[in-house]
Amino acid sequence: MASKLIASNLRQTLKRTASVFSPVRSNSTSAAAAVTSPAETFEDPNGITIKGVRIAGRPLYLDMQATSPVDPRVLDAMLPFYVTQYGNPHSRTHMYGWEADQAAETARAQVADLIGASPKEIVFTSGATECNNISVKGVMHFYKEKKRHVITTQTEHKCVLDSCRHLQQEGFEITYLPVGSDGLVDLEKLRSSIRPDTGLVSIMVVNNEIGVIQPMEEIGKICKEFNIPFHTDAAQALGKIPINVDKWNVSLMSLSGHKVYGPKGVGALYLRRRPRIRVEPQMNGGGQERGIRSGTVPTPLVVGMGAACELAKKEMEYDEKRITALQDRLLNGIRAKLEGVVVNGSMERRYAGNLNLSFAYVEGESLLMGLKEVAVSSGSACTSASLEPSYVLRALGVDEDMAHTSIRFGIGRFTTEAEVDHAIELTVNQVEKLREMSPLYEMVKEGINIKEIQWTQH
Amino acid sequence: MASLGASSSSAPARAEVLALFRSLLRTARKFTDYNIREYTKRRTVDAFRHNQNLSEPSSVSSAYSEGKAQLEIAQRQAVVYQLYAPKIKSVMDLKTHH
């Protein structure tokens, strides 16, 4: 929530003070912060004050599911396409176009290689949200004569659920599969939900909020058995766990650049060629990307995504080993000093870089506000402005009080042991402080069962 | 990334390998960003440790030219990071000063 407020605040102050800037630093946010009124954002060599909160330095970053920093090796691949090789990859009449086209095609091959696909099956888009929209709405619109039903889960990303709601308004029927308390989908329920007019099954690989990994191979088998196209949102899985589109039998897969240390604003859609899956385009125009996604392909971004994918393939084993060790360190460190800490979602089938914890007897927003030196989130960045508990945790059957106190720790390639230790120290201190003043915690210590208290008035 | 290919046929001398190792670590220290600096140091040490038992001349020289390519990237990017360094340091940098 805090990060969202800061961002909007910065955006506003940027707009207001744009004319005051010296031309040299006019596009730097640090300069923007320096010239804004002290009441809102103030930065001096000793620290930053944003929204009345004073921070000594830039917080340590543990929000890798929201976005990841761009790897310097990725930026190094991108910069030439911002500086000198600025051609439009669709220009067929000069060298600028040819070199940009060549770079985009290399990137396409790099992305395809990471997921075991052919470069011809990759369509570049603006991100995973666009991919999910093309997949869910595009497939159903294309096959609308015969197929009127979609199966998805309650814990999908907002953009899949919202696309489904959009389809519902057009008269399509949607089944939202429930998940178990471990966050995993019940395969038998999936099988029994399939109808003759089911046109699509859409189930994500790694959940963005709780990090659980769905049984992709098994779901793929069921879809193959009934010959139903299978779409999966793999934004949080790309480069982190091994992906193979044939092994999982997926027909469509959504991928994102900025979750794999690549640039924001670029994604890729995998579209199976054999058997061919067809979609109705969301964007009409120049017919780029085989007419599925018109609009000039942004060479620097696409090159960045390709470089990030190649790097992820090379570094996956190394990163995975390290991130798993850091996750253990974080969880053991917190559990050694605090009781009443619950991991949300399956511990066995989980991506190690996502640790979603609930702290009993504290209030989540107070905890987050108290952790100002740690950039973490209570769940998805998209819904972090809302005080409502996460719909994902509610789908897991997490009690309302525990759903309110969840914190998602996102560990990544650049996270250090020292950062994890510092995060443990700050979290433990803050939770202890909040519990000390919590009447609930006092009641629990006195032996009162707080589950029996009715909180909401009817 | 983008391995420079063209690995020379003769394996590099021990002194050359050590010089590359030292250059990588020296370049790593120039990164203004706490996380990138620590990562570059750590990745360098781990990669050299991983490759320390390579004996096949061709694999030694291909690892060497890969390292050279990484050094060039790191040298360029350390400059970029210096150009856009934020005024305020990471809390992790402040912590180690005290």
Automatic annotation (TrEMBL), chain A:
Species lineage: Eukaryota, Viridiplantae, Streptophyta, Embryophyta, Tracheophyta
Gene Ontology terms for molecular function: cysteine desulfurase activity; iron-sulfur cluster binding; metal ion binding; pyridoxal phosphate binding
Organism: Parasponia andersonii (Sponia andersonii)
Family membership noted in the UniProt record: Belongs to the class-V pyridoxal-phosphate-dependent aminotransferase family. NifS/IscS subfamily.
Aminotransferase class V domain boundaries: 61-421
Root EC class: transferase
Name the record gives this protein: cysteine desulfurase
Membrane spanning residue stretches: none
Keyword Transport: no
Chain coiled-coil ranges: none
Matches recorded under Gene3D superfamilies: Aspartate Aminotransferase, domain 1, Type I PLP-dependent aspartate aminotransferase-like (Major domain)
TrEMBL record, chain B:
InterPro entries, sorted: Complex1_LYR_dom, Complex1_LYR_LYRM4
The Complex 1 LYR protein domain, residue ranges: 16-72
Entry-linked Pfam families: Complex1_LYR
Gene Ontology biological-process entries: iron-sulfur cluster assembly
Name of this protein: Complex 1 LYR protein
Organism: Parasponia andersonii
